[in-house]
Amino acid sequence: MPEAAAARRKLVEVRDLRMHFPIYAGLLRRRVGAVKAVDGVSFDIHEGETLGLVGESGCGKSTCGRALLRLYEPTSGSIRIDGREIATAGFDTLRTLRPIMQMVFQDPQASLNPRMTVGSIIGEPLDEHTRLSRREKQERIHELMDAVGLNRAFANRYPHEFSGGQRQSIGIARALALNPRFIVCDEPIAALDVSIQAQVVNLLEDLQARFGLTYLFISHDLSMVRHIADRVAVMDLGRIAELAPRDALYEAPLHPYSQALLSAVPEPDPNAETRRRRIILTGDVPSPANPPRGCNFSTRCPRVMPVCREVEPAFREVAPGHFTACHLHDPAISQTAGTAAAPEAKSTADTHVQQGA
Predict the structure, then answer these.
(1) What are the tens digits of pLDDT across the range 222-256?
(2) DSSP string spanning 66-100?
(3) How far apart, in whole angstroms, are the C-alpha atoms of residue 211 and residue 167?
(4) DSSP 308
């Protein structure tokens, strides 16, 4: 997987992306701080690849995806899509770039206009960005409905007449209207029944194979991410804790936060489930408005060392294609602090690990 990704061109390049939301207080509404929703994120996505972005609720996943498409104005950083800078592009330039980047939103009910028919919803991007005739636009709408498995006869129906999975298919068809190269899928299956989730994910995979699409797939469902993603980035409190090829991450996660997340994924085999060791995190979850000094995970990490509370770990490559931000994998620190920290880390870890129920 890493070799295949390396052979492909980088379509999306993100460097030190920050998205801080100001906090105002007092009678004069002065700025007193900021919520650091995304705080120095860097990664690449190759053509035709699916990068999974996972993490617990509130870690900044959706904010990161929206900032990539300039639905939010980034505080700082660089976003290059197909070699063109997005973060600082002006309105006119950004409008010309919209066709290459699209988004599938989390809630299909809220993201579709209830006063518009399905045909009008899917055709709206064509009205804004193309000069197709009425007949050509109608043909394109029918092609898109065929692509996502919707009956053409339903083009004059309204969103409330469809099921949740069908509404998400409408949103996907709208995203495909302008032949984009990059699509941000912001938890596209979170609002759907379990029986429908697999259908939507299979649809996304089929469309990727047919049209050569590149996805950023944002989700908290680690089992589904393992199915669809080529590489996975684990996000914690606005920063990326670990980035690795899918199989390497799921088989041998390096960051304690990744290990805790993956230990919570249920095993289909009942016998394996009873033998599984689950990591239970304790301690306070920090606020993104006031993150801790050093490592963001230091307040909950079962293997915390003194250096973790003082120095922010560097995001470094510790194996081919496998990156992590953890002092445990910093040779300079682990050699000097490992001997003293090992007994503390072991006893703390034993305290926070319990047998799977």
Answers:
(1) 888 999 999 999 999 999 999 999 999 999 999 99
(2) HHHTTSS--SEEEEEETTEE-TT--HHHHHHHGGG
(3) 21
(4) G
